[in-house]
Amino acid sequence: IADEHDKKVYDKAVENFKLWKEKGWLVKDNEEHYYIYAQTMNGKTQYGLAVASNFMDYIDGKIKKHELTRTEKEEDRMIHVNSQSANMEPVFFAYPDIKEIDDIVAATVKNQPAEYDFTSADDVRHQMWIISDKAVIDRITKIFEGVPALYVADGHHRTAAAARVGQERMKANPSYYYQYNYYFTDVLFPANQLNIIDYNRVVKDLNGLTPAQFLDALKKDFDVKEMGKEIYKPNKLHNFGMYLDGKWYSLTAKAGTYNDADPIGVLDVTVLSNLVLDNILGIKDLRTDKRIDFVGGIRGLGELQRRVDSGEMKVAFALYPVSMQQLIDIADSGNIMPPKTTWFEPKLRSGIVIHEF
Predict the structure, then answer these.
(1) What is the C-alpha R_g of the chain?
(2) What does 161-186 look like in DSSP terms, one character per residue?
(3) Region 165-191: what's the mean pLDDT?
(4) DSSP secondary-structure letter at 283?
């Protein structure tokens, strides 16, 4: 089995892409279209527009981020994009809600059959419609010319890699760039259709404290309430669930321990990091400390309990999920969220829309 970063792996991807085109499994549209991409999970459907965005919008800050990226992950995606001369993996973007776009999407879905309609192995339904009417295409383009910013929801490394590929190719062949520009694929979803799932934490030890001492330390900044054996899910901002020694607790941060006027200070990941992980447990860097791990909310709070009961971890914390408005506020203010703050589901499927350079 080859390492995923081995040149043979990238070469095999190029070979497969070429083969699938030759066999007619992938067919290139003769004209530019927009595509509606719908995902249905747990009975809820979100409708996005699959488009191509200019990488300079990311460089210029019109496509806004809320997370830092790691160079090695960018490099992997750059190699893949460069070797294929195509974007296989669309990025997940959000935009402020626009009723006219919603109406166009609703009319298309109602009046024409889906081009694709399948349910993936994770029980998510994926559907796609083609928008081919030139007047509608031009109108969508015109509307988005007036949108001040798009927001990276999921796919910061793919976006950063696409921008770096664009910069490299522009420098290598500026005359071609100015004639054609470089674009990458993304799917734009209205912010009001998206839900961010909680991203929770588990910690290996109590930094030398006994459970009783740890609970006493928490009472300085939190109202601590024992909830018993039943899983406790946080019910509002600044309320946390904690699992320790076979019991669930409700932790509510006391007034004055957080700053709701600060787009970063209002986040519960910040509150937990400052008041518990740093002050009590001595975890200073979430990116590098091996004593902490992160569990996406899609796995459920039972996974937190399991990892503590197994003895692998000593304590688990369940967080109230970040809102889309908090994400937008942070991106607009130029701030960056702490690591492992947002988890989006469902994920976009690679290969449904592909953009060749």
Answers:
(1) 23
(2) HHHHHHHHHHHH-HHHHHHH--EEEE
(3) 84
(4) -
